[in-house]
Amino acid sequence: MSNSGILRSSLAKKYVMALSGLFLCLFLLGHLVGNLQLFNTSAEGQLAFNEYAHFMTTFPLVKLLSYLTYAAVLFHVVDGIALTMQNRKARPTGYVKEKGSANASWSSRNMGILGTIILVFLVSHMQNFWYVMHFGPIGESDGLKDLHTVVMTFFGPENGLAGLAVAGYVLAQFALGFHLIHGFQSGFQSLGLRHSKYSPLIERAGLLFGIGVPTLFASIPVYLFFIQL
Amino acid sequence: MNLTLKVWRQNGPEVKGHMDTHALEGVSPDMSFLEMMDMLNDQIIRAGGEPVAFDHDCREGICGMCSMFINGEAHGPGRGVTTCQLHMRSFNDGDTIAIEPWRAQAFPVIKDLTVDRSAFDRVIQAGGYISVNTSGNTIDANAIPVPKEQADDAFSAATCIGCGACVASCKNASAMLFVSAKVSQFALLPQGQPERESRVQRMVEQMDKEGFGNCTNTGACAVECPKGIDLSNIARMNRDFMSATVKSKK
User: Fold this and answer.
1) So what's the pLDDT on residue A205?
2) Is B204 within 8 Å of B213 (Cβ atoms)?
3) Residue B32: which domain range?
4) Percent of chain B with pLDDT over 90
5) In angstroms, rounded to a whole number, what is the distance separating the alpha carbons of residues A211 and B157?
6) Which of A58-62, B122-126, B137-141 shows the lowest per-residue confidence on average (mean pLDDT)?
7) Residues B22 and B101 in one domain
């Protein structure tokens, strides 16, 4: 069997899906820790957050990590689309009556749709914050790019659509939660990491991760919106 | 019991099929699902019609021949049963029951409810065996000590009857549960070690060639499996394929 054959195999595609997905879980944790600083809306909090944002966009090792993250997103999306297309082809005629809920969880049956919602959110999210941080227009505070104010304004009364932005953000976090509840433990299974002793722990960790991380993410815009009302 | 049956009718692999509705009266709750199908065919033949083609053989749950996607589930609503072991007491008087063939690109419909499952045979031919010299001095398999737990797991994997319920139930029509059970039954035993790596590579390659879908780890296959083959087999195959790929010289 040639090497190219192995790379084209269905299992290798799942390894890519699992590795990129689990890497993105680590990214989510890092991103969350950064975001939680936004709960401090005082002048010191603003300075600390802007210093953090400056560090995250300029420190070489972090930059390297960010390129890895872009690559992981790209692999995860492209691979996901390729897998979905193959799966569609594998059943050209569908069932007249199919009871999917009888044997599989809702999130596991809807990973593609959930992923698409997350991707749409990601594009808009990067346009609103990542693009502004990198390419402006952005104000300055204490000689640093003032990302803190960008965020506060985006979820504040100055933005007429802030309510809609918060609702969209929360909805995307629900999609992320369901995606993670299945995806986290599924990644381990795809890599063959299943064990009667440890797998129940992985499943519980996945559930905790899938509920905890999106809830904390969503709580930030909700908080910023209400304190500025 | 009086039932309304919606049955998939399709004359051949290339033609379009459709659901046909039949009323069947006087069904005994003690009948097996296949006996109920026999009764339906009797009624159709007496009325001068073409009987419904469906697969069946041993009718005692061990051959893997009977298929049928009943009311949205492979082998119907029961757990751990084939269609021949499903009894009409699982349904209620007045029920409408939808009966469809397994649906997968790799399992083309032959006629009505019968599908061609020879894709599974080709996966087995690709590596689902051990090469033994049978020149007259074959060693008794029991002469090699095997830890009890290992032997039990290998036996559990080997109970797969190749019915295809896993493919039928999977939203992606993936054959991972079947192939992984056939990989595992050898991977767990000493006799399977010499060909362990090449076996998993060849069987996965054939599985992909047949046009089965990919595994999303929904677990539907294991829930619907009449023999209770579990997902640890899929994890084992994922592991073995990875290490075989990394170590492979080609």
Assistant:
1) 96
2) no
3) 3-111
4) 92
5) 35
6) B137-141
7) yes
Give yes or no for B211 touching A (CB within 8 A): yes
Of residues A89, A189, A196, nearest to B234 (C-beta): A189
CA nearest B17: which of A91, A96, A87?
A96
Kindly state whether residues B137 and B228 are assigned to the same domain.
yes
What structural domains does chain A harbor?
A: 9-89+108-227 (1.20.1300.10)
Residues B104 and B7 in one domain: yes
Tell me if B250 and A3 make a contact (CB, 8 A cut-off): yes
Please tell me the total count of domains within chain B. Answer: 2
Note the pLDDT of residue A5: 52
Number of A–B residue contacts, CB under 8 Å: 145
Average pLDDT, chain A: 93
Last residue of a domain, one of B111, B129, B150: B111
Letter string b/e over residues B180-206, b meaning 16 or more CB atoms within 10 A of that residue's CB = bbbbbbbbbbeebeebbbebbbbbbbb
**Nearest residue, CB atoms, B204 vs list A11, A15, A196:** A11
Q: Do A103 and B169 touch (CB under 8 A)?
A: yes
